């Protein structure tokens, strides 16, 4: 019997699931809070400082409640993609969110209309001064948007338009069933279960799984393409009305990073890909193929393919965290014991993994499908890194907890690095070490090549979409071309329907859900190098950096905590060199294989 529960406890947040009376009360409370915020916004006779203070307090309270509610819906629909009641509640939460963000737009406009001298004076107030970065950010962004009433209209129309297309894609995924033969019988698997078979150690299993994977996504390609086209069309029209010429303007702003930083990072990566090409060519030789097919890229090598029980994986992760910081290990132990993790391998779950926050409750929940692979352990450590990030920020004001995806991925990848590096050090023999090293390099391939392919595809897709609807065959062509370019022509068979299989392209809360992953991976590599140099004293510095992630740009964060300039390639080249060293060791270890 497992020591730790493999299903999460959602009743600790709101008992009763989709029928929860406590959750219904939460939603009613948000609606009442929004009505109160509307009243404050309408009362222009109140002293501007007091008005801004009250609006700020109300907005943050509603924001925390909204984040909690969105997380609850995400958990309900992830654990059971056919929970129709949860899907209905999700629609209500979207409507509440639209009303709230319409009022936030009016709040931002109030900030915009305050003159500079009065603004500086206003920020001298203690409560508002603590939020100087966040409030100033809102004020400046308001200057780049449409009039408040138009932005409010956009939010209302987005519920059944923009966001509705994302919901349609979730419905498509929920109906996707994959046929496999197991023990002489044909079984139907969900997308989440099938995804694990794509990295099976047996190439014949991978080949069969990949063929079925492509078949199913091809069968829903027309519907998926329509959803993707409509999501992109909505964004492009909104950008046009705001006067934004670049599709990267919004994702860069959301991630609080400059285009110069993005370009410096990718330039350094392009140089580093030379090493990964050597790795992929050697891996093809080891697998006995001329070039790696898509399903071979993540194929395991060495004894790291052994199955590890959930309890073993949990104990190993906690042990490695403890070597870095006892507080981080204690947090992980609590998450395992208290049922914060949904890891059971069963039908009906959505694919992938995530960590989501319940800031009012001071808790998080992690979702994944655990089958005992080295990759599963990495994913679990990754999501626990996200959870710890939120944990150390729970006492901050609501606005200051709104950190971006790129720094969120920094925390998760840092946790993953702790586990993978120490696993290599603890390897019992050369074969196990090789398997773990190869698993580590695979993550570099994912962030330098797979993510790059997604960015290339999405950027080119948006340019093509400006001319009209993009067909399934055109999407396939764009996807395959992006993969071959990003992987430096090391691929045999590509994955043309990847665009249909990847949820990230259909998310409507965050556009361009790709390059922030690579930023987080490399930024965390730089942090990990510092941690190795400084030893135990770095843990407190790491927490200090995490706490600043919601109230600084990434350039400010790097300058304050690392003393580096992210708009120059120096830092990024140093981070990429860690991967080059891993590849060098891999080539040495496999020279005579």
Automatic annotation (TrEMBL):
Coiled coil: none annotated. Its cofactor is Zn(2+). SUPFAM superfamilies: Metalloproteases ('zincins'), catalytic domain (SSF55486). It holds the Pfam family Peptidase_M3. It comes from the Bacteria. One of its GO terms (biological process) is proteolysis. Keywords: Hydrolase, Metal-binding, Metalloprotease, Protease, Zinc. Residues 113-178 form the Oligopeptidase F N-terminal domain. InterPro entries: M3B_PepF_2, OligopepF_N_dom, OligoPept_F_C, Pept_M3A_M3B_dom, Pept_M3B_clade3, Peptidase_M32_Taq. Binds 1 zinc ion. Residues 200-537 form the Peptidase M3A/M3B catalytic domain. GO terms for molecular function: metal ion binding; metallocarboxypeptidase activity; metalloendopeptidase activity. Belongs to the peptidase M3 family. This is M3 family oligoendopeptidase.
């Amino acid at each position: 019997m497992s020591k730790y529960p493999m299903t999460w406890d959602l009743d600790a947040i709101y008992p009763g699931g989709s029928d929860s009376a406590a959750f219904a009360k939460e939603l009613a409370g948000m609606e009442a809070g929004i009505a109160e915020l509307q009243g404050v916004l309408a009362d222009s006779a109140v002293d501007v400082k007091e008005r801004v203070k009250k609006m700020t307090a109300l907005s943050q309270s509603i924001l925390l409640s909204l984040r909690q509610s969105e997380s609850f819906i995400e958990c309900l629909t992830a654990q059971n993609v056919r929970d129709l009641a949860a899907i209905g509640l999700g629609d209500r939460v979207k409507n509440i969110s639209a009303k709230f963000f319409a009022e936030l737009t009016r709040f931002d406009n109030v900030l915009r209309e305050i003159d500079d001298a009065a603004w500086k004076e206003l920020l001298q107030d203690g409560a508002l001064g603590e939020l100087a970065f966040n409030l100033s950010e809102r004020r400046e962004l308001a200057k780049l948007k449409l009039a408040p009433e138009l932005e409010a209209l956009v939010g209302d129309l987005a519920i059944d338009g923009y966001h509705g297309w994302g919901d349609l894609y979730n419905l498509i995924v929920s109906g996707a069933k994959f046929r496999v033969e197991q023990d002489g019988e044909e079984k139907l698997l969900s997308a989440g279960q099938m995804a694990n078979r794509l990295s099976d150690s047996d190439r014949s299993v991978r080949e069969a799984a990949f063929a079925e994977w492509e078949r199913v996504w091809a069968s829903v390609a027309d519907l998926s393409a329509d959803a993707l086209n409509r999501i992109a069309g909505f964004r492009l029209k909104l950008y046009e009305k705001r006067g934004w010429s670049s599709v990267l303007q919004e994702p860069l702003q959301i991630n609080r990073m400059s285009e110069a930083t993005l370009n410096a990072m990718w330039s350094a990566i392009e140089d580093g890909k030379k090493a990964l090409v050597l790795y992929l060519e050697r891996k093809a030789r080891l697998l006995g193929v001329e070039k790696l097919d898509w399903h071979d890229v993540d194929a395991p090598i060495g004894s790291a393919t052994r199955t590890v029980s959930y309890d073993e994986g949990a104990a190993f992760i906690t042990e490695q965290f403890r070597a870095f910081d006892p507080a981080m290990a204690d947090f992980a132990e609590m998450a395992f014991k208290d049922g914060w993790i949904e890891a059971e391998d069963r039908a009906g779950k959505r694919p992938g993994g995530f960590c989501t926050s319940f800031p009012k409750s001071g808790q998080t929940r992690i979702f994944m499908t655990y089958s005992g692979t080295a990759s599963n352990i990495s994913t679990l450590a990754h999501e626990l890194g996200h959870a710890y990030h939120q944990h150390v920020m729970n006492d901050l004001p609501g606005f200051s907890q709104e950190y971006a995806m790129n720094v969120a991925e920094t925390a998760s990848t840092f946790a993953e690095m702790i586990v993978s590096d120490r696993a290599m050090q603890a390897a019992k023999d050369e074969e196990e070490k090789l398997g773990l090293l190869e698993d580590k390099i695979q993550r570099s391939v994912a962030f330098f090549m797979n993510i790059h392919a997604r960015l290339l595809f999405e950027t080119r897709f948006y340019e093509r979409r400006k001319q009209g609807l993009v067909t399934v065959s055109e999407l396939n062509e764009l996807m395959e071309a992006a993969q071959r370019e990003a992987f430096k022509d090391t691929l045999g068979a590509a994955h043309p329907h990847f665009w249909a299989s990847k949820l990230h392209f259909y998310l409507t809360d965050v556009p361009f859900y790709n390059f922030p992953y690579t930023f987080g991976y490399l930024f965390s590599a730089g942090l990990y190098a510092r941690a190795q140099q400084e030893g135990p004293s770095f843990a407190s510095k790491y927490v200090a950096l995490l706490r600043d992630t919601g109230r600084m740009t990434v350039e400010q964060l790097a300058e304050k905590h690392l003393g580096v300039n992210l708009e120059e390639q120096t830092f990024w080249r140093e981070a990429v060199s860690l991967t080059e060293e891993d590849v060098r060791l891999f080539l040495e270890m496999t020279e005579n294989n």
